Amino acid sequence: MNSIVLAAQAAQGGGGMGMLVMMVAIFAIMWFFMIRPQQKKQKETRNFQNSLQEGTAVVIGGGIYGTVKRVDIEKHTVDVEVARGVVLTVDKTGVFADVNAVTPNA
């Protein structure tokens, strides 16, 4: 069994360079299809969180829908009204999306 592997490696010759090129190609494909879109999505979410205004309908962590009542810039918190008279104070990073931008899975 070992002699077959050794014979295959000897017949292949300078395969080290081909393996290096293949690894670089795999990394490039992974970056374009996985890492880059994720970074783009994170940047969009961060820009949305920084532009929050009172009256915006939002989705916070856990899928809770509500309306922004107050944004505290110093503490990085947002007061979100989830029902009449029920106001939650959440960290600004806990606000994930604008309700108008969320598309239902119907």
Descriptive tags:
transport, 44% helix, 106 residues, single chain, alpha+beta
Structure description:
A hairpin with a 3-residue loop joins strand 1 and strand 2. The chain is an alpha+beta fold and 106 residues long. The longest helix has 36 residues, at 15-50. A five-stranded antiparallel sheet has the order 4-3-2-1-5, covered by helices on one side. It is built from two helices and five strands. One of its GO terms (biological process) is protein transport. Belongs to the YajC family. It is found in: Cell membrane. The chain crosses the membrane at residues 16-35.
Mean pLDDT: 82
Total helical segments: 2
Listing every helix as H and every strand as E from the N terminus to the C terminus, the arrangement reads HHEEEEE
Characterize the largest beta sheet: strand count, sense, and whether it forms a barrel. Answer: 5 strands, antiparallel
Helix content: 40-55%
Rg computed from alpha carbons, rounded to a whole number of angstroms: 25 Å
Q: Which quaternary structure do these chains form? A: single chain
Main sheet strand line-up: 4-3-2-1-5
Q: What is the number of beta strands?
A: 5
Portion in strands: 25-35%
Overall body shape: elongated
What structural class do helix, strand and pairing data support? alpha+beta
Which regions have little confidence, pLDDT < 50, spanning 5+ residues? none
User: Terminal Cα separation, in Å?
Assistant: 56 Å
InterPro entries: Preprotein_translocase_YajC
Keywords: Cell membrane, Membrane, Protein transport, Translocation, Transmembrane, Transmembrane helix, Transport
Protein name: Sec translocon accessory complex subunit YajC
Subcellular location: Cell membrane
